[in-house]
Task: inverse folding
């Protein structure tokens, strides 16, 4: 699972546990003893609870976490067909051990922004289970650093 998909999975778990989703754009009518969450940019989720004995002016505790992982991101508009193969450009994200990704079947997962009209766009989470890509290692006789 890609880090872009984690907030959506966390949202399902929070709702199952009785948390209520609030919108950043609305005024909140929060109640003591209740649990809430909101999302941002499809990549962030913030959840919080309000203690049963809370009164305005009391302090609060905040706990944060960050999750992402090294990955290869598909470059926009990079599709090329050569020798009967479809090629796409990728860029590295994070500090991966990239040589370990070579010559392995790879799938695609993450967030896609889709055009829904002339000036309208939407976000979709994508996860293709079957391997559809491979990054070949450079042939040893072409690598002068070996």
Result:
């Amino acid at each position: 699972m890609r880090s872009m998909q984690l907030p959506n999975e966390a949202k399902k778990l929070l709702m199952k546990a009785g948390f209520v989703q609030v919108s950043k754009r609305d005024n909140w009518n929060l109640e003591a003893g209740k649990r809430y969450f909101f999302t941002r940019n499809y990549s962030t989720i913030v959840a919080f609870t309000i203690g049963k004995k809370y009164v305005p002016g009391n302090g609060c505790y905040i706990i944060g976490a960050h999750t992402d992982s090294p990955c290869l991101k598909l470059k926009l508009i990079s599709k090329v067909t050569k020798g009967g193969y479809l090629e796409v450009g990728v860029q590295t994200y994070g500090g991966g051990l990239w040589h370990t990704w070579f010559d392995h079947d790879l799938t695609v997962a993450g967030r896609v922004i889709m055009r829904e009209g002339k000036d309208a766009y939407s976000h979709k989470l994508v996860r293709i289970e079957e391997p559809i890509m491979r990054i070949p290692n450079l042939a040893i006789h072409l690598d002068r650093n070996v």
